[in-house]
Amino acid sequence: MSKEIILRKEDVPGQDVRVFLELKDGETSITAAMATDADRDNVVDRVSIVGDLDGDNDLDEDDKALLRDMVNLFLKIKW
Ligand SMILES: [Ca+2]
Ligand SMILES: [Ca+2]
């Protein structure tokens, strides 16, 4: 069984930078989340999240902090 984390950045000039997170377990997508960098400084400004990222069966500030940290790291990678 393989597990994947997919991060997708959508960077359209003049708009918010959006990063989408998808967790896949085999062919099943189990969580999707999105974070936005509105001022385009490579630091997340807002998270909107669907699903439980830390697996404790609730959706709270811990999940949002985890998403924020992960996307901030992702935004530091340049290519
Ligand atoms: Ca920002
Ligand atoms: Ca949680």
**Which class of secondary structure composition applies to the elements?**
alpha+beta
The shape, in one word, is globular
Helix content: 10-25%
Cofactors and ligands:
calcium ion
Structure summary, number of beta strands: 4
Computed over alpha carbons, the radius of gyration is 13 Å
Number of spatially distinct domains: 1
Strand order of the largest sheet: 1-2-3-4
Specify the biggest β-sheet: 4 strands, antiparallel
What are the segments in which pLDDT stays under 50 over at least 5 consecutive residues? none
Strand portion: 35-45%
Order of helices and strands: EEEEH
Number of helices: 1
Which helices and strands occur, and which strands form pairs?
Elements: E1 3-10, E2 17-25, E3 28-37, E4 46-50, H1 61-76
Antiparallel strand pairs: 1-2, 2-3, 3-4
Bound molecules: calcium ion (2 copies).
One calcium ion is lined by residues 52, 54, 56, 58-60, 62-63.
Describe the protein's architecture and organization:
It is a single chain. With 79 residues, the chain is of the alpha+beta class. It has one domain (3-76). The protein is 20% helix and 41% strand. It contains one helix and four strands. The protein has a four-stranded antiparallel β-sheet, covered by helices on one side. Strand 1 and strand 2 form a beta hairpin. The radius of gyration is 13 Å and the shape is globular. Bound molecules: calcium ion (2 copies). One calcium ion binds next to helix 1.
